[in-house]
Amino acid sequence: MNSDKVKKLQQNAESVRTGGKGTARRKKKVVHKTAATDDKKLQSNLKKLSVTNIPGIEEVNMIKEDGTVIHFNNPKVQASVPANTFSITGNSESKQITEMLPGILNQ
Q: Which intervals hold domain NAC-A/B (predicted)?
């Protein structure tokens, strides 16, 4: 065979093989599960703990030791008091405490 053709075939075989030499050739790499499936598992476990939604919470601020604040605007807050479990879901922002200072004092 032509040496160029042999090199092309070897490159093609290397791109298909996911392991090293001696492993089986796979058609495609296995795609791992996404975060959506993790979220579904988390929600099902929270349902087992019988969490209930807490309405009327407009914002949640978590102040860390280094002075940054994890700020949730209009979060979904769920709680199970007997299990001592609270769940806060929503979009979060990391801010410095100086940015939040005028509005955070009344909390």
A: 36-101
Domain at 71, CATH number: 2.20.70.30
Distances (CA, A) of 99 to 31, 35, 66, 96, 103: 41, 31, 14, 6, 9
**How far apart, in whole angstroms, are the C-alpha atoms of residue 10 and residue 50?**
57
Residue 106 lies in a domain: yes
**How does pLDDT run along the chain (107 residues), one tens digit per residue?**
688 888 887 777 666 666 667 777 777 777 777 777 888 898 899 999 999 999 999 999 998 999 899 999 999 999 999 999 999 999 999 998 888 777 776 66
pTM of the model as a whole: 0.59
User: Are the beta carbons of 57 and 89 closer than 8 angstroms?
Assistant: no
Beta strand 59-63 with 76-80: parallel, antiparallel or unpaired? unpaired
Tell me how far apart the alpha carbons of residues 35 and 30 are, in angstroms, rounded to a whole number.
Answer: 16
